[in-house]
Write a structure and sequence with these properties.
single chain, about 300 residues, alpha/beta, Rossmann fold, three-stranded antiparallel β-sheet
Length: about 300
């Protein structure tokens, strides 16, 4: 990990993402489900482009002659559960209070990488999609999604993609940020796919929870992890405080103690709304705090999927 990326993502004491993700995964490795198999399975699953690290036994040589590119034959088994990670990288995820181990996006990225390592070790393909986000290091363009793939190299691709993204983008101004991320998932998600979304759930367009819950069905599962900073959970600000939104143009001046009860009530109501929609359709809603060891969030997701 380069110094510039570490600084941009505000990793804090989380350490290099690759090392920490491996450590988390190895420390709790129990598998997300019963052993998954990929290869000569029970049903032919079509073709996709070859990616370095794929099993060479399933190369389709005729595709090279027909299309001038390597394609891989896919087979699906009853136990396969592709993992599609959806990580919120909008501007609000860049917040880090004084008690947090790292910014919300950095914390969520670490959890996502650990989950990817566990899934890939079980033989399941992993894909990565962002809500918002910007290319790191001042590069032009936004966050680039990573299509689902398996193999030993996919973990490195997931980590490299997470490290190359900065929290950025305004979901209040750009309401299409969710549509761009989820439309592709709706079209391509196979039966049995597991969706894990890591987000603070703040400032997202109205109806996002319903869009996400729509992914359920046909054996698919959805787990949402709400990632919050201790400041957002406890609201311990004292005296006169001036708040400026990280998304939108809102500025509020208030007295901390006088506002605390109203804020906490609104936060609880917001979470209850998400919970009603997501769990009401068979999904799960969990909470992660950035002052807590992310190993708890990884375990929570695994338990939710058993």
């Amino acid at each position: 990990m380069t110094t510039s990326i570490r600084r941009a993502l505000d990793w804090g004491s989380l350490g290099p993402l690759r090392l920490r993700a491996r450590s988390l995964a190895d420390g709790i490795f129990a598998g997300m489900h019963r052993s998954a198999q990929r290869g000569g399975g029970v049903e032919f699953g079509g073709f996709r482009e070859y990616t370095p690290g794929d099993d060479l036994r399933w190369l389709d040589r005729r595709s090279l002659l027909r299309h001038d590119r390597f394609m891989v034959r896919q087979f699906e088994t009853e136990t396969e559960r592709p993992l599609r990670l959806v990580v919120d990288a909008t501007a609000s995820m860049g917040y880090r209070g004084t008690k947090a181990l790292g910014a919300k996006f950095a914390w969520a990225a670490l959890v996502a990488a650990a989950l990817a390592r566990i899934a890939l070790a079980n033989g399941d393909p992993v894909g990565l999609t962002f809500l918002g986000g910007a290319a790191g290091g001042g590069a032009a363009g936004g966050a680039v999604s990573l299509r689902a793939a398996g193999g030993r190299e996919q973990f490195e691709r997931v980590v490299a993609t997470l490290e190359a993204v900065e929290a950025g983008g305004d979901a209040v101004v750009d309401a299409g940020v969710v549509d761009r991320a989820l439309d592709g998932l709706v079209r391509t998600a196979r039966r049995g796919t597991v969706f894990v979304m890591l987000s603070d759930l703040l400032d997202l367009p109205e109806g996002t929870e319903r869009r996400l819950a729509a992914l359920l069905g046909r054996g698919r599962e959805v787990v949402v992890v709400q990632v919050l900073d201790p400041d957002e959970v406890e609201f311990t600000f004292d005296g006169a405080v001036r708040f400026r939104a990280m998304e939108g143009q809102f500025v509020v001046e208030s007295d901390g103690p006088a506002t605390r009860a109203v804020y906490l009530e609104a936060l609880a109501a917001h979470r209850a709304g998400w919970n009603d929609v997501v769990t009401g359709r068979g999904g799960r809603l969990l909470t992660g705090r950035t002052d807590e060891d992310p190993i708890g969030a990884v375990r929570g997701v695994i338990e939710a999927l058993r």
